[in-house]
Amino acid sequence: MSDVPPVEELTTRDCWALLGTVDLGRLAVVVKGLPDIFPVNFTADHGRVVLHTSSGTKLAAARSAPVAFEADGVSEDGQVWSVVIKGVIEPPRRVDELRDFEEVTVHPALGAHKAYQIRISPDIITGRRFTPVPASYWEGS
To answer: Please, which residues have CB within 8 angstroms of residue 127's CB and are 6 or more apart in sequence?
Structure first.
């Protein structure tokens, strides 16, 4: 197993560039003392992750503690990447009251009304990128 491709640690700039290529991620919060993960549509905007949500479990949990956010993808050259952000949620604002952020576009996949916009302000951002090994690599191991 010495042919394993190296894992590249990404710069903050690389992380933000890659986040700009996808719109589906996962928001991790703590609910009643246990971790929970929600798929979310998002956009990367000026050093923050922006998403729309409705009131409920996700919003309540995100307001009360630090959160983690993760998105990943496959680049055109076949490299797999993953970006993780740990931070806090800026106070949510009603989408219809946000004049300053009208140009921020998030298209939720779920047709339910998303009354609040939340922004994750990152304390930590990390990322990795690597070339996946072919399935044959694991045969006979």
So the answer is: 9, 10, 11, 14, 15, 18, 81, 82, 83, 84
